[in-house]
Fold this protein.
Amino acid sequence: MQFVSDPDIAVKIDKMKRRVRWQERVFQEKSIEQTKLVIDDGNTDNPNFSFLVIGDSGCGSHLKHHPQRKIAEMMLQHKQECSFILHTGDVVYQVGSKEYYHPNFINPYKEFLVGGENPKQLQYDRLTFKVPFFLVPGNHDYYDLPLAYGILAQLTWLPRRFLRGRIDLDVGWHGSFEGDAYARAFLDYLIEIKNKTSLEQHLETNYVAKHTGTRCLNYQPGKFTRLPNRYYTFRYGNIDFFALDSNTFNQPLSLPDTAEGMAKRTKLLERKKELAHREQEIQSAMDKLDRNNPEDVEQLDDYYAKLEHIEESKRDIDKQLDINQEITDWEQLEWLKSSLVTSWQDETVQGRIIFLHHPPYVTEKTKWNQGQTLAIRDRLRQVFDNALKSIGELPTGRSIVDIVISGHAHCLEHIRTKDTGDGDSHIDWIVCGGSGHSLRRQRKEGTVLFQNADLDSQPIGESHLYLGRNGSGNEKKRPYSFLRIDVQAGDKDKPKFTVTPYVAERYQQQWNEYAIDSFTL
């Protein structure tokens, strides 16, 4: 039995549609678009603005320190200057359960929440943000916990409490209930409004904004801060933002029924055996560590991170081997294509940013060649290629989107693609997945990515910045991070993006705060 279970893509799509009453008659009658929102802060027309980016943050206190809270405290220094915060997913570890929203989300970000001065009194499904939080779900926000493991977690509750401040697995009775906790926390959860009159009144109160000529949700900081759907778009300044739920189009491409496909299948099965063996070795090593020794406890944290990586890798292999699971969220991808075309047809729009959980391009050692990574890359390429057929030739020096921001890989990275032969050429890809949870190292294969992951074929991208776990023993460094992105209207309708990484580095049981040199996109 796997420690956690990941619902099927069809289940995720269906459940999320039900929760927001997707395209029911009342929305059609009132001509309401359920994938758009307008930020009602009085500053959305300003072409010069700033925002913050975090991701993979939702862990609790461990090792007598709290990386997520440390990053949140640094973010507070930018609170007055930044218009909103993007979150790239994995909001609550390990399985997105509602009982961990307080320690793993509400408490760390309490200053950003209305009533945050008394966080214990806040309900996770009644949150209102002072500073807008725009989130997308991560894989952990969809995970569930088999009943047997939930019971085991509760039986070990007392020893885990005794060890609190040293290590905590962030596991309760259950999981997310197929993403329900995330939906209740952040989406406009309409399924519980049973009375038609009450629903109509809710829509007449909160869906009164206009975005690109259609009626949509009015996002009011400090008053009403729900999201209309699991994927959505909004405009700030002259920039269009597109939030995607990549959990429903990350199914790895099926292996061909050829000699090459069979060889890869054999290799995947061998890799799964290797991972199981490595898992046993790590568990044996953990049994020998002293939880009262700070250095051993730090090593325990590293081992837990490795076990989590092994679980993720085995799930990825299982998805590649599953010949019966070929479901892709084409409805969402078609929405993205149409939205990009509409954005390019609007002469007032200067730039476009996509944010999602799974990275299409990354050099982090555990994610760079996963089936899900390659699947996300392939699906976005199809969307970009199809959109370009409708858009036509782009202005000189422009790409179909300016930046794609993701998480999932526990690092901070900036990659720029070369000429890939597809619509994802010459795009800046930023991975911001190091804002609280365990960090990971860069791959040993180098900074250049190739078209064929197994061969030195055409180079299609290169990493220009990587920040993750590095060093070993007493010299090990853990640089947790977030981003500030400053947007300025540019010449000839091309905006200027200035990206500044901020770092809270844990080294020899001490914190060191610093900023990395800004870079311009």
Notes: The radius of gyration is 22 Å.
